[in-house]
Write a structure and sequence with these properties.
four-stranded antiparallel beta sheet; about 425 residues; about 40% strand; globular
Length: about 425
Amino acid sequence: MRVRFPDATFGRNKILGRAFWPSLDGKDASPANIPAPCGDVTPFSQFKLLAFLIISTAVVAEVQQPEEKHASIYWGSLGPRRGLVVDASHVFVTTKKGLSIIPKTSFTTEGIEPARLALKGIPQPLVLLNGKRALAGTGQHIAVIDIEDRKAPKLIAKLRVADDDLYGCEDFELRGKTLYVASRRKGLLTVDVSNPAQPKIKNRLKLPGMASGIALDGDIACVAVDTGIAFVDISGKRPKKISYLDTLRSALSVDSARKHAVIASLNYIEVIDYSNPKKPKSIREGVHNAPFWYAGFRDITLREHLAYMATGEGGLYIFDWSTGPKCKLVAQMGFWGGGRTKRQQRIEYVKKFGIAKTDKEAAKYIPEGVNYYFIGIALAVDNQQIYVLGHVLDKKRDDRVHCMRFTETPSPDITYISNR
């Protein structure tokens, strides 16, 4: 059973019921406490007072002019879900420091450095527009980036979509010249990017919950809204909500294929059949078995019958979502950290969590030959190659992209290649 929490209210400084004036000699300098002026008030003294006030106001305005506000809050344990996309030659990823463009060859050849562009706010969702522009969500803004020169990306425009982090960008999908934005409490935004230098918000559709993930399937947008999933008709000029399904588990991210939506909550994936979008229904689910405090499904990508999951401290999980009463775990690439290199150390670690009492029971949670540390917060699949963004806890170091190769036949196998 999911316990629902009331809408979160973040602390804000509130304006009190009375005005406060600058202090005079440690006293509240309200008008009642300001001494009456001494002597006669002449036209010249009035002029001097007026000139002083004008100059003082101008100086204060210049000194106190606030810097443009950017996002400072994210949702998610350890770090937020980020954006990771690939094209024929490069990996594009938003990290804690901004946008990185990594040549694919650098994962097998030493000495090839990525290009980087610092972005303000909290860089998260990412899509490519015609191979020449990248659109990155940074919380309260959408950043438009020129990526024609893959070695020197440039910020060319920003669009403010929210004045509060509760209403900012969480996920993107691009269809032609329209960007669909899962915008937390704001719901679903449609943004015209036909002129990338001047993106414009076209429409907003209010949705229940907090929009945190989106996937497009034909004329249907599947929007994860934390408390469930909303299905939206995007065939017309304005999106229209068709239905909403309470999934009983937190719906954090989503992908779709063949009239099925697969949503990721923290510990479960759930498959929703929306062949009739007015009456969607849950048909199966799966669960990860990672015995870690911060293991949880963070990002999901579907390829045919397989669901690839970035699973926080659980690393990478791959499920067959398409048949049977439950989603079947196909393969996993996890971690055990540098301090637990021996199998018996890992067995004892699992038993400490209380999920297994004997060595034999604990062994089923321990994949053979796996000891790669990565906290998966985003992923992309490119044929047999899988790229997973690993969150780095050290604030001074940037996040890392881990490259792996997955083969399903004759038996499922994940081979770790390298990270950049």
